[in-house]
Amino acid sequence: MSEERVTAIAERTGRLLDEVNLQVEQFDAADERTAFLGYVGHADDPEEVLRETAAPVVGAFAAALDERDWPEAVDGLVVRAYDPTEAPHRREGALEWEVSTALAGRYAAGAPAEELDESDDTESLEAVVAEAVGTARMRYADGRVEPLSLGER
User: Fold this and answer.
1) Residue 71 banded pLDDT, cuts 50, 70, 90
2) Residue 40's pLDDT is what?
């Protein structure tokens, strides 16, 4: 798949997030098989950022993949939440996490069941989102990456 098509998936995900008032600053291709999305989220409290934004991001990525029917050509989405109090050129670090295409597919499969309250046979959306949150790390401008040890997920 070309980087242009991966960027289109990231852009569609970003547009869906605009609908839920998540301020997306950047969408791009990390490489030929991985989309990238950067949004405003206060990195001083990564747990709160994840708690408030993880489910909408996973849901939007799942919807974007479903709309375009491109799942086998994309490995996943790298998500980065920036501190909105810092100017873009002065940001020292950002909360980063990943959503695999397989995880987005599991989310999409569970969403209709939860809406119909038939979640006994399907994985809970909360469990799927928690798996994405488990990939969280801090990425710094100097190249350092530190995994986050979050409290209860």
Assistant:
1) low
2) 82
Residue 91's pLDDT is: 66
**Among the listed residues 51, 50, 52, 22, the one whose alpha carbon sits nearest the alpha carbon of residue 38:** 22
Which residue type, as a one-letter code, is found at position 110? Answer: G
Q: Which two tokens stand for residue 144?
A: 């350092």
Structure tokens at 142: 């100097």
Element (H, E) at 42: none
Region at 21 (left for phi over 0; alpha for psi -120 to 50; beta for the rest): left
Q: What's the rounded Cα separation, in Å, for the pair 113 and 151?
A: 28
User: Which residue, among 120, 126, 97, 124, has the nearest Cα to 109 in the 3D structure?
Assistant: 124
Record the tokens describing residue 53, joined without a space. Answer: 């934004």
Residue ranges covered by each domain of the chain? 3-147
- Give me 76's structure tokens: 């996943």
Residue 106's pLDDT is: 93
For residue 139, give the nearest of 87, 78, 85, 84 by alpha carbon: 78
- Distances in Å between the Cα of 69 and the Cα atoms of 76, 78, 94 are 14, 19, 30
